[in-house]
Amino acid sequence: MSENERNAGYIKDVENAKNKRYKSLLRGIVSALIVLVSLYLLQRLLVPKYVDDVVEGAFIAEYYGEEKDFDVIFIGDCEVYENFSPAMLWEQYGINSYIRGSAQQYIWQSYYLLEDTLRYETPDVVVFNVLSLQYDKAQREAYNRMTLEGMEWSAAKVKSILASMREEENFLDYVFPILRYHTRWSGLSGTDLEYMFDTKPVSHNGYYMRVDVKAAQDVPQGRILADYSFGEKAWDYLDRMRELCAKEGIELVLIKAPSLYPYWYPEWEEQVEEYAFAHGLRYINFLELGEETGIDYATDTYDGGLHMNLSGAEKLSAYFGSMLSEELGVPDRRKETELSSRWEEKLAAYEAEKQEQYRYYGMQP
Amino acid sequence: MLFTSYAFLGFVAVLFLLYYIVPRRWQWGLLLGASYLFYALAGTEYLAYILVTTVTVYYTALRIERNADRQTGYLKEHKNELTKEEKKAYKDRQKSIRLRWILAGLLLNLGILAVVKYTNFAIANLNGLLHAFGKGESRQLSFLDLALPLGISFYTFQALGYLIDVYRGTVRAQRNFFRFALFVSFFPQLVQGPISRFGDLSQTLYAEHAFDKKTFSFGLQRILWGYFKKLVIADRMLVGVNALIGDPEAYQGAWVLVGMFFYACELYADFTGGIDITIGIAQTLGITLQENFERPFFSRSLKEYWRRWHITMGTWFRDYIFYPISVCKFMQKFNKACRRYLGEAVGKRLPVYLSSFVVWFATGIWHGASWNFIVWGLGNWAVLMVSETLEPLYDRFHQRFGAGGKAYRLFEVVRTFLLVSALRTFDCYRSVPVTFRMFGTLFTARNWNILWDGSLLGLGLSLLDYGILAVGVLMLVSVSLLQRHGSVRERIFAKPYPLRFVLWYGLFLTVLLMGAYGVGYDASQFIYNQF
Fold this sequence. Notes:
The complex is a heterodimer.
Chain A: H1 3-46, H2 59-62, E1 72-76, H3 78-81, H4 86-93, E2 97-101, H5 107-118, E3 125-129, H6 141-148, H7 155-164, H8 171-175, H9 177-180, H10 190-194, H11 232-248, E4 251-256, H12 266-279, E5 282-285, H13 290-293, H14 310-327, H15 337-361
Parallel strand pairs in A: 1-2, 1-3, 3-4, 4-5
Helix pairs in contact in A: 4-14, 5-7, 5-11
Chain B: H1 6-21, H2 27-42, H3 47-77, H4 84-132, H5 152-168, H6 177-185, H7 187-190, H8 198-205, H9 213-246, H10 254-284, H11 302-308, H12 311-327, H13 329-342, H14 344-347, H15 349-367, H16 371-389, H17 391-401, H18 406-429, H19 432-444, H20 463-483, H21 488-493, H22 497-514
């Protein structure tokens, strides 16, 4: 074999090796892309969409699609998202408000939702419902999920997850929800495919509308507790919420919604009153304002006194709206053109759902 | 840290990365650090136990080897000066010193194992005796609050195997203490074996390993296959097993057969899955561990099954208990006496029965400090001894009826599976009286209809779960059949890349989507962790 032939052979070998390397690299990149894309699609398919039966898990995420210049932000559990109607507050008082509520939202989650909200805007007033002071640790993983999954990733979300996780939970399951919902494949429905990438709004500025009626009857008395003191963790987060609001110049208003059940103990009331008094906070217990709000538990609740229906929520909002505008000076913004036009759309959707629900429940508006 | 936890996967991923980044001469040191970290995460209070075993066995082995070396040197030096008798007397003296050392090492470490693992079992039995002799509650002994250190049975046996090997001169003692510490504590096998021999493991454990794509990917594939067995099959079957053994009174008759089958499959998938993960992790690190299974459910007899199931434990008992007992002076005298008084035919068998009895008693109690394990061990012993005694009869039967065809071999495989599964029910119910009672109901409760009337869906498993289990078990059987013709991974490796990708990624997705893990599933540790 001549020198030239040997050189040509060597060059060919080098080129072959080079091609093999490129081929291998390309194969690796394509495989990685297939893996990543397919896992992403699977995850989107498997996570619950919260658009059908249990819609409460969708509320928290809806906030991020809003123009964020709200004057009043409600935070808390079902006692805020079912009992106050931002649409009514706008219609009657021109108050631009939003409810960052979720099912059994714990106080530390409320605090981190406040932190999260402050990343985007600084409202004049934050309204916090005090029922969640009774909890010092998370009760159910499902409730954690419904609050935490909707939050966009931020330091607040990470801290909220870490503060909320129960023993059986794992942080990684929040980062990669497919690990949590991997078994949902056997129960997938058309909805999962339909709302794989985009979802439909299920609340009205965080308000969950129900027009049906179930009168409150035989509301059970609270069982006797061994200790009525709120836990350290609950107080700590209330302190942090108060301090954060003070630092940002936000008026923090504590409320107890007029839900008859879960039972609100006098001992709890006493502790909240003392706290509010000691720190100069406004505290309103709507359970004691039945006459003023006009709540009628025979017509204004849809589940026997646990939550207000539309009628109850609108009555409560009408009363609270006047307090917000007159006593707390929350501005009437109905003259702002852009905002008004946004609200026009929202009110139309609000009205449409109202009518749809009346039809569904066979009720007269 | 459970093998099935995210923390473990993270731990292993970081280790893989570091292992191939650090200079190769540091690799074994990194493994030692990782193994001790793994052990400390299980409970820092357990570190003392493994350290005591490591230090004492290391030191004892060195003393034994030094003595043996000194003996060799002395005899060589004084080869021409000593008479034959003087040499023999010197050798006997030295041997007796070495014997004292090894006995000290064995007694100390077996003593630790016995105390932490068997004290409460002994107390329970003593209390039972006191009660039987009418001593009543006043004389009952209190149980001790003893926590069982992670993997103590495995690392103790592995360390003592090494000590005996050094005593026998089959391996040289490891002079580097830290290297020896790695041999005892190597984390993947610490939890459930395999029980490695120093001569085998040291070949690759301390070697420097360059990253090899094929070896690494083969290791990952083995890990994935292990997780498939554990999470998709074993932990799903566990739901049914727990329902059946949780309420034995409600699940009698045909349910016992269902339980037998479920438990056999669960145990197989759980234990072999765990070993696959262990061997796979070692392989990704370039370390070769001995195989622990060789398709045991294809065995045609119980004897063959025990050669193919938990191989490293079986060979450990054979080499370090059965053989020494069989050739010890007492057994030789016993052998002679038996032959003299009972005749050649019976006399030659009795010493084998006795040695085997000791081995099977030890095997039983090694699995757990309770009577059900002892009865299970002795049940195996009884079947094996009867089979061995009747072997000439079987041979004549086979010759007479020409048994040996495929159908007969299949019959033998099924028979062995049923026999093994039946014996395993002692392990499953964890109570000897309950196991016997449940077996009794097989003949009294006439409820065979539960096999087809939908009752099986009441065990907490849906139709879909049964479907997954059926496909999973079919996959296990298919892979086992393919393994008879060589490595399945090698065969897949020879296929075009797209096909390989689809196969392995498909398996990954199967584990991801069908695995019984996360919230809603109780994290279950591997069954053999408890031993």
